UniProtKB/TrEMBL annotation:
Keywords: DNA-binding, Methyltransferase, Transferase. PROSITE patterns: HTH_CROC1. It comes from Sporomusa sphaeroides DSM 2875. This is Tellurite methyltransferase. Its EC number is 2.1.1.265. InterPro entries: Cro/C1-type_HTH, Lambda_DNA-bd_dom_sf, SAM-dependent_MTases_sf, TehB-like_dom. Residues 12-66 form the HTH cro/C1-type domain. Pfam families: HTH_3, TehB. It comes from the Bacteria. GO terms for molecular function: methyltransferase activity.
Length: 276
């Protein structure tokens, strides 16, 4: 039960204006009257619980944030401190996998939508936007979200930043590309199957999914910044999830990394697959 709260109304009004939507537009998208939106904003009525997920999605915030005005501070990631710094922890060079997606698209990016899950500071999200894609950048870390927005402003390439937890995040529309780079280890193993099913379901036929994930190897030491809520994949997991798609690339390699300022190695598995 949500308490009637004019702060919630003010937040809805603020988020709506930030997105540049009128009450009519929001009403249209949520299939409610503009009067209903006006009542919520004035604190005279509350949105139906079932409308909270689409409302949060529309504004690019978590339900948590929509209701409380607080970011998911309790679930802050290990990178928050790094993302607050001026420099870019992950650099601004796009990843190799991001470049491969652009190569496959061969310039056919107009009106194509891409979801980048766990965007970090936005190096790939901005690159995709620069290449002409419409990008939704989903990130849990509040400082990460701020950094992506700043990078977007400075570079002049617009991305739609979604401050949300990928775990349980509902997709509303289909994408041409769903992408993640080094972030799906934050999905607890019991959650993986349904999340991959969702990513596949919300990809257009002919569209792409591309992921880089970390696999466990006995000869690779745990990275210095590996957290307790990160879970390794096993070799072959990704190919298993995409067994019914056309696999364009699937490979495993050992990469060097010096995140946390300490040189170390990761075993990674990349997949690039097309929905048939
Ligand atoms: C290893 S970083 C990779 C960042 C970016 N993809 C890149 O390659 O530069 C993983 C990212 O996933 C984000 N993340 C962790 N858990 C998340 C969750 N539950 N929902 C959304 N993002 C999450 C972290 O905050 C972090 O920015």
């Amino acid at each position: 039960m949500i308490h009637n709260d004019s702060k919630l109304g003010r937040r809805i009004a603020l988020l709506r204006k930030e997105k540049g939507y009128t009450q009519e537009k929001v009403g249209d998208l949520l299939k409610v009257t503009p009067q209903a939106i006006s009542k919520w904003e004035q604190g005279n009525a509350l949105p139906d619980t079932l409308l909270l997920p689409p409302l949060a999605r529309l504004f690019g915030v978590s339900i948590d944030y929509l209701l409380t005005g607080e970011s998911l501070a309790g679930k802050a990631g290990p990178y928050d401190g790094e993302y607050r710094k001026e420099n870019f922890y992950w650099g601004i060079q796009p990843s190799e996998l991001a470049g491969q997606i652009i190569d496959i698209l061969q310039g056919d990016t107009a009106n194509k939508r891409l979801l980048d899950i766990g965007s970090g500071e936005g190096r790939d999200a901005i690159y995709f936007a620069k290449c002409g894609l419409q990008v939704d950048a989903l990130e849990l870390s509040a400082p990460g979200v701020e950094k992506i927005k700043r990078y977007s402003r400075l570079s002049g390439y617009a991305v739609n930043v979604i401050h949300a937890d990928m775990i349980g995040y509902d997709l509303a529309e289909e994408y041409d590309v769903i992408y993640s780079h080094g972030s799906l280890q934050f999905l607890p193993p019991a959650e993986r199957r349904k999340h991959f099913d969702k990513y596949k379901q919300y990809t257009k036929t002919g569209g792409l999914n591309a992921h880089l994930i970390f696999v466990e190897k006995p000869f690779i030491k745990l990275a210095p910044d590996w957290e307790r809520n990160e879970f390794f994949f096993s070799s072959g997991d990704l190919a298993g999830y995409y067994h019914d798609w056309e696999i364009l690339r699937c490979g495993e390699e050992i990469i060097d990394c010096d995140s946390a300022g300490i040189p170390h190695r990761h075993a990674v598995n990349c997949i690039l697959a097309r929905k048939i």
